[in-house]
Amino acid sequence: MKHIFFVEDDLSLISGLSFALKKHGYELTVARTREEAERLWENGTYDLVLLDVMLPDGSGFDLCRKIRESSKVPILFLTAADEETDIIMGLDIGGDDYITKPFKLAVLLSRVNALLRRSENFHQADTELVSNGIRVRKLEREVYKNGALLDLTANEYKLLCLFMEHPDMVLSPEQILDRLWDCDGNYIDGSTLTVYIRRLRMKIEDHPSAPRCIVTVRGMGYKWNALERDV
Fold it and tell me: Which CATH class is domain 132-224?
């Protein structure tokens, strides 16, 4: 269940949206002032923020700035103001979307769902790479093949991440060498790169002599052949 942090002082809007959001399966925490919102923000974990610009004791823009000091949580501004300068300011300081009152419930729910999907995709892309039965957990620096943990060297890990971050894209040896350094900071030459690719294939390919993941593109370089994007 996704947890939405709703910062709004209009009681009628709080009542209506709270009912609708809970009905659609969201957990909800409501704050009516900036002071209350700052306290609840520090003590909670939220998946999305619905934030009114005009609060009784301050500006939603200031609260947005505070949130952005520690979080990338999606922020959707709610406001009666439709001035272009307000919209630009809200987006420039870290807001993700902006909807003006009055609005239709269906439109708000669509925006909320879109922001949550985008956030999930961002965090998964940011922390995990998944393709061809290979899963890289970047925060833990762990690589799994069909659920089994692989033992990769630091440079094998970096090489694998480089390929998986650029699926179906031909990378020249020069492009790869520009990104790949050994643990002591020494440059790796073309011959060493060939060795690394051969060793990496031995660990991730089902048939290293006939690789399907890391394929050679004759005269151009190598590419990660994304046969399966999800595991």
Answer: mainly alpha
Query: Residue 27: in which H helix or E strand, if any?
Result: strand 27-31
AA identity, residue 168: D
Q: What pTM value is reported for the model?
A: 0.56
Distance CA 155, CA 159 (A): 6
Give the integer Cα–Cα distance in Å for 226 and 205.
13
Structure tokens at 34: 């900036």
Q: Using alpha carbons, select from 1, 91, 118, 38 the residue that is nearest to residue 99.
A: 91
- Per-residue burial over 1-40, b = 16 or more CB atoms within 10 Å of its CB, e = otherwise: ebebbbbbbeeeebeebbeebeeeebebbbbbebebbbee
Closest C-alpha to 54, from 78, 20, 83 = 78
**pLDDT (tens digit, 9 = 90+) per residue, 106-147?**
999 999 998 888 777 666 556 788 999 999 988 788 999 999
Residues of the chain with CATH 1.10.10.10: 132-224
Please say whether the dihedral angle defined by the alpha carbons of residues 110, 115, 119 and 121, taken in this order, is positive or negative.
Answer: positive
Q: What single string gives the DSSP state of each residue in 115-136? A: HHHHHHHHHHHHHEEEETTEEE
Fold of 3-127: Rossmann fold (3.40.50)
